[in-house]
Structure formats: structure tokens, C-alpha cells
């Protein structure tokens, strides 16, 4: 395999993951790559659009409290 595994053009048809960490950050990931330490899989599906839909439906942005 060559190319960027996250652009979908790497020739790998193994689907897409959504991973999240303790800070509620989300990332798209590929199943053939090791999930980084501190991240867990919250979605697994066959296509990138499904993974993006999952993030859109489940991600809640939180604003940081202003520091004084």
C-alpha cells in the first residue's frame, strides 16, 4: 500500500473507524492501523461518509472557560 491511508485513495477497502480520547476529541482512523494509546474505537463502518456522519451526530463542541 502506498499513499495516505486517510484520504481514501490508498487502495485499502477495509472500512473506517471513529476513535475518541478522554478529552472527547474525535478522529477518523483506518482499521489496518494500530489505534493510538489513549484512544478507543466508537464506530466502525464500511465507508468514510458513514464515519463522518457518526462524528457529526455525536460530537458536541464545548467552549473553554475564559481564564482571568
Radius of gyration: 14 Å
* Biggest sheet record: 3 strands, antiparallel
Number of strands: 3
Fourth-level CATH superfamily of the domain at 16-58: Structural Genomics, Unknown Function 30-nov-00 1gh9 Mol_id
CATH class descriptor name of the domain at 16-58: Alpha Beta
**Order of helix and strand elements from N to C terminus:** EEEH
Structural class call reads alpha+beta
CATH fold annotation of the domain at 16-58:
Rubredoxin-like
Average pLDDT metric? 84
Return the CATH architecture of the domain at 16-58: Alpha-Beta Complex
Which overall shape is indicated by the principal axes computed on the Cα atoms? elongated
Helical run tally = 1
Helix content: 10-25%
Which strand order do you get reading across the main beta sheet? Answer: 2-1-3
β-strand percent reads 25-35%
Q: Give the termini distance in whole angstroms.
A: 50 Å
Regions with little confidence, pLDDT below 50 for 5+ residues: none
Amino acid at each position: 500500500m502506498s499513499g495516505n491511508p486517510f484520504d481514501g485513495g490508498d487502495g485499502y477497502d477495509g472500512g473506517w473507524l471513529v476513535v475518541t480520547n478522554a478529552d472527547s476529541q474525535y478522529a477518523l482512523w483506518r482499521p489496518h492501523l494500530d489505534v493510538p494509546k489513549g484512544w478507543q474505537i466508537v464506530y466502525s463502518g464500511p465507508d468514510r461518509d458513514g464515519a463522518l456522519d457518526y462524528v457529526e451526530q455525536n460530537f458536541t463542541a464545548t467552549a473553554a472557560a475564559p481564564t482571568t
